[in-house]
Amino acid sequence: KNNNLYVFSYESNPSKEFISKFDLYGNKDTNFGQNGIFEIASTRSIYSQPNVEIDQMNNFYFLQTINDTTYCAKHDNTTKPDLKFGLNGLIRLTSDMYSAKIKILDSLGFFVIDNYSITRFFNSGEIDSNFRQFNLTLPLVSITELKKVTDGYLVSTFKKYPTIEFTIYKMSVDGRLDSNSIINKKFEYDYE
Questions:
Q1: Measured between alpha carbons, how far is 119 from 99 in angstroms, rounded to an integer?
Q2: Which residue in 59, 112, 127, 170 has its CB near the most CB atoms, within 10 A?
Q3: Count of CB atoms within 10 A of residue 119's CB?
């Protein structure tokens, strides 16, 4: 990302998460964290999906779980926390710690996605109130991906019972589900 390579790793006993930074030639950036390695203070399970996003200014965002509460943290390119972001560098999320993930799709802000909802935030950590939070209320269906297209976003979902289904929806730039343009492409597989 931005001519740098970031590597996410973890240890299982005790549970620890790390980010390492390298240049394009594989040299470790020793100004990043502690000798090129930044340890994330978190109690997230190692079975959670690792998720670190880097913006155009080389700030990075990651999920951090403390006492069963999930936060989004923002740090600069040397791992110093951005204390102007949220409350002392953290935004408290209501998302499930095991399903939440961060997506940066443009320079305006970032998204937090969990199995059932999509929320947009500004770079400052404030919720974008003009973006209608996308909520999925279908049983046994979860959000798997969010992609930016010219006039909005594509949202893909996954359903695993009674048949496996993948569905793609079109969402406008302000978060409205465009019912007239729903691709509604389903790929169904029956269990045997």
A1: 14
A2: 112
A3: 19
Q: Are 105 and 58 in contact (CB under 8 A)?
A: no
pLDDT tens string 135-175: 776 666 778 888 888 878 878 777 766 667 777 778 888 88
Q: Give me the count of residues in the chain.
A: 192
141 forms beta bridges with 159
Query: Hey, which bits of 130-181 come out as E strands?
Result: 134-135, 141-149, 152-159, 163-171
**CA atoms of 29 and 118, how far apart (whole Å):** 34
Neighbours of 108 (CB within 10 A): 13
Angstrom distance (rounded) from CA 127 to CA 131: 8
Task: Report yes or no: 155 and 118 within 8 Å, Cβ to Cβ.
Answer: yes
Q: Are 36 and 20 in contact (CB under 8 A)?
A: yes
pTM, 2 dp:
0.75
Question: CA-to-CA distance for 27 and 48, rounded, in angstroms?
Answer: 29
Tell me the two tokens of residue 87.
């409350």
